[in-house]
Design a protein that fits this description.
about 450 residues; about 40% helix; single chain; alpha/beta
């Protein structure tokens, strides 16, 4: 018999509505698993057990009376430690904000609560949601459930670890340069960054306003889409199959990069072959120079990030972790002209990606160019460059999805799907998910 915490959102919803399962029992099953696994994984930094049970019991009463709030009614979820939830300790992973209690609830969290979702608690992030993992944040970093000696990626670190370990099916994250998609890839789960502006960002700690997106980390593409619908207030149709679609393969974007692990190239080639076998055409597609895009995005992150956290730097900057401090202070050297040039580069890039997507329905490439590095690489609390292919789509605002595409040395790899709309990229992701068994794999101990 399937453990309740392993039911998909749709399966759990069907069980709740049939009376086979109560939301309170579903929530307790999640809490029991968290109690067993979280001491090792360190994904949850605050558990709201009483609040979760109360919300679940309310969902049971509403469903029993015929009130149905939608697919997430009675479904547990986790919240990244950058989103305010009234009365909960939300400290942004930073010693700067220890003791902070959120005064109100972020609109995107409220939308999930209004949809009947059950808040289990707060999951870890990197210090100020910027870079990591550091040993000088407010709490020890979450570990990769596939190998605890390796990082999760970030900054939605706890969200990806919690989902990968089976503690929760869906979690709310944020993504400024890949912070939903890269940890999803490193941890073997799904990460969905919707189009820019599709979800309200108020009540969430920002970094670079022109790049900031919210997103969902989930066990499956279907789970991610149902969460996205609740976050955006719309209903997205997930059509079956991809026969007849044109899916561009941006192989030149990574294959010759010395940072690309050979297993990533092999996995991507195999993934594109699988998409072809599912009925899609997979032409090679050229995208703009990646190095130029990454350089422009770095200017925006450092420059806008400095403005976002300027007061913290003026105040008790000594309580800020070494890595986020170094990232923020780099913005001091930038001029208004530098930022203007970076924004102009972003506009040109958006037009070039739009032109590429005019010839295909979506484009695919790796999410990350190598498996998750070990914690030992970060012992000096210095930022370590990890090669990804995510940040351009924060600049352009296009929706992007990371799905599991295999393993290297026992660690997961991810394929990124970028398109004009969430429905199409999720359609492709779901078809790939069904054609392979990568998404069905679980860490041994979970």
């Amino acid at each position: 018999m399937t453990h309740p915490a392993d039911l998909s959102v749709a399966e759990a919803g069907e069980a709740l509505r049939s009376g086979w399962l109560l939301a309170a029992d579903l929530t307790r099953a999640h809490l029991d698993r968290i109690a067993a696994l979280n001491p090792s994984v360190r994904a949850f930094v605050h558990l709201a057990e009483d609040r979760a049970i109360a919300a679940a019991e309310k969902a049971d009463a509403e469903l029993a009376s015929g009130e149905d709030r939608g697919p997430l009614h009675g479904i547990p979820f986790a919240i990244k430690d950058v989103f305010d939830v009234e009365g909960m300790p939300v400290i942004y992973g930073s010693r700067l904000h220890r003791g902070r209690i959120a005064p109100a609830t972020a609109p995107v969290v409220q939308r999930l609560l209004d949809a009947g979702a059950v808040p289990l608690g707060i999951v870890a992030t990197y210090d100020l949601g910027i870079v990591g993992p550091g040993s000088d944040g407010a709490y020890p970093p979450a570990v990769n459930p596939w190998n605890p000696a390796h990082i999760t990626g970030g900054s939605s670190s706890g969200a990806a670890a919690a989902v990968a370990a089976g503690m929760v099916r869906i979690a709310l994250g944020s993504d400024t340069g890949g912070s939903v998609r890269s940890p999803a890839a490193y941890c073997g789960v799904v990460g969905l960054k919707p189009a820019y502006g599709s979800t309200p960002t108020a009540g969430a700690l920002g970094l670079a306003p022109s790049l900031d997106h919210l997103g969902s980390v989930a066990r499956s593409v279907g789970d991610a889409m149902l969460m996205l619908d609740a976050m955006t207030g719309r209903r997205t149709e997930l059509r079956a199959g991809i026969e007849g679609l044109r899916i561009g393969y941006a192989r030149s974007w990574f294959a010759d990069d010395p940072a690309t692990h050979s297993d990533v190239t092999l996995a991507m080639d195999a993934a594109v072959s699988d998409l072809s076998l599912c009925g899609a055409a997979t032409p090679m597609t050229d995208l703009p120079d990646y190095a130029l895009m990454e350089a422009a995005a770095a200017v925006l992150i450092h420059g806008e990030g400095l403005e976002t956290h300027r007061e913290a730097l003026r105040g008790d900057g000594g309580a800020m972790g070494r890595m986020p401090y170094q990232s923020m202070i780099a913005g001091v050297t930038l001029t208004g002209g530098d930022l203007a040039n970076a924004h102009e580069a972003a506009r040109r890039l958006r037009a070039e990606i739009d032109a590429a997507l005019a010839t295909v329905d979506a484009v695919v490439m790796p999410t990350v160019l190598a498996p998750a590095p070990p914690f030992s690489a970060f012992e000096a609390n210095e930022a370590v460059w990890t090669a990804m292919r995510t940040i351009p789509f924060n600049m352009t605002g296009h929706p992007a999805l990371s799905v599991p595409m295999g393993f290297s040395g026992g660690l997961p790899l991810g394929m990124q799907i970028v398109g004009r709309d969430e429905s199409t990229i999720c359609r492709i992701g779901a078809a790939y998910e069904m054609a392979t068994d990568h998404s069905a794999q679980r860490p041994y101990f979970a």
